[in-house]
Structure formats: structure tokens, C-alpha cells
Amino acid sequence: MEHCLLSKLKAQPLWVLALFSVGSFSLLRFFLAFLNWVYVNFLRPGKNLKKYGSWALVTGPTDGIGKGFAFQLARKGLNLVLVGRNSEKLKDVSDSICAKYAKTQIKTVVVDFSGDLDDGVSRIREAIEGLDVGILINNVGVSYPYARYFHELDEELLKNLIKVNVEATTKVTQAVLGGMLKRKKGAIVNIGSGAAIVIPSDPLYAVYAATKAYIDQFSRCLYVEYKNSGIDVQCQVPLYVATKMASIRRSSFFVPSAEGYAQAALRWIGYEPRCTPYWPHTLLWALANSLPESIVDSWRLGFSLNIRKRGQLKDSSKKE
């Protein structure tokens, strides 16, 4: 049978053989990519996170993804430095974690990342002095209250978007990185967004998407700079997660809970420099990449306009 197939191929014109070769190579690439996708999402074991150090620092740990990370890291046996702006919420989260994982040591640092950032970073440096902080989760971030055109952004929102999403992540990373370099080990996880990477544009959320694009490039550059120094840097790219920031209350197959996302996210730490840990999100990413950008742009604009209308109705009802 093989001889017969080879004979038929040899009898074909050169252009047919060329197309057959290209097609076979494309199928092989797809098959290998699929096997790799199955392995990294379902079979590859997570790394021993305690090898990086006994402490992890999480920014924005009182709600959403940050809170999910805090609980999952405690579950893995790490001690925590929790950094947030609300002291009462920090205490509530700390008490909840200690009630569930009694051996976990927790330090809290009150920092308003939209306020005096230099003072806040100084307090973080003081809090981690002498601690073996091996993992940094840069999760703190702000978005729009609802979709808005760029010219409608007020000065306060514009300032906070850049200060919290860009400046805070940059300065906290620099504050923690020094200790990691001394110990020659560490993992830095920066939370990006599909708004900057998966879809070609995010109209009516322009500045938010742009700040997350900064996080992506910042992470990739640090990954290259420090990969030979024992430090793993990664940008995680979630799509929608059921959080207050996303204004989604219920989780679903394509929209995980914060806890579900964090559980998946820990398995990816220390591997690729950019990843989407929750595997159903990778299906949406593949779909977005398969469509013409103009179609995705139009869909996203329509989606954002609907959010804008609902936000305007809420604003008007509050004023009344």
C-alpha cells in the first residue's frame, strides 16, 4: 500500500507535490501544537512554589483575583504580605486565611496606590526587610466605572489609571526585585488583560487597555533581563473573570470565579513569559485570532456601547 501511494505521488506534477508537502507540514504543526496545548493545560505539573521563597507578596488582595491568589498561595504553604488600601478589608482577609490555614504567617501593609506612592513603596520595603519574599503577584489595578470615550475621561480617573496600573506595578516590582536578586531566585507575576493582548482593540476602554499593554511589554523585557538570574517573570492574561471590576457576579464555563482563576494560575507560575492560565480562555483567544480584526473591532465597539448605555442609566438614576 505504501509503495502504491509513493508511486501515485511520484506520478503527480511538481506543483501538486509542493502543495501536498505544505499541507502535510501544516497538519503536523497543528497536531504538535494541539498536543502541546493538552500537555500544558491538563498534564504539566505546577512547580513547587516554596522553592522561590517562603513568603509571597500580593497587591490588591481584598477582592477578586488578588484575594483568590492570597488564599491559593496560603493553601500551598506560603506566608503572605498583603498590600491594600483598606485596613479593615485587609484584616478580614487575613483573619479568613488564618482561620482556614492556621500555620500561615501574614503581614499587612496599608497602601493607597492612587495616593502617595513613594511613601507606600517605602512602607512595603520596610515590611519585607529580612523576609524571604520569593513570589510577587502584581494584581492591583483600576478600570473605568463603565465604558467611556477617551475625551470623556476626567482628570482623576485618567491619573489613577496610569498611576495604579503602570507606576504602582513598576515601583513595587523594583522594591521587591532587589531581594530576589540577592537570593538568586524569585517569581514575578504581573496581571495583564485580554483587552490589550487577545483582541486588537478595546474601544471605550482605551487608557485601561494601553496600561495593560505596558504591563505585557514590561513583563516580557524583565523576563529576558532576569531569566539567567534565577528569576521567572510572567504576564498572565485573563479574559473575563467574575469580579467586581468586571461587573460580573456569576461564574460560568468561560467566566471563572476569582478562586477558580487563581487555582489555575498557580500551575503556570515559572513557565511561559505570557500565558492564559484558565484553559477555556484559550479557546476564546483562538477564536479572536481566527477572525478578521475589523470584525472583532466592530463586535467590541458594539459591546462597549451597550455597557456605556447601562452605565449612563445608572448614573442618571443615582442623580435622580
TrEMBL record:
The chain crosses the membrane at residues 15-40. Keywords: Membrane, Oxidoreductase, Transmembrane, Transmembrane helix. GO terms for molecular function: ketoreductase activity. The keyword Metal-binding does not apply. The keyword tRNA-binding does not apply. It comes from the Eukaryota. One of its GO terms (cellular component) is endoplasmic reticulum. PANTHER family: RH59310P. Belongs to the short-chain dehydrogenases/reductases (SDR) family. This is Uncharacterized protein. It comes from Trapa natans (Water chestnut). The lineage of its organism: Eukaryota, Viridiplantae, Streptophyta, Embryophyta, Tracheophyta.
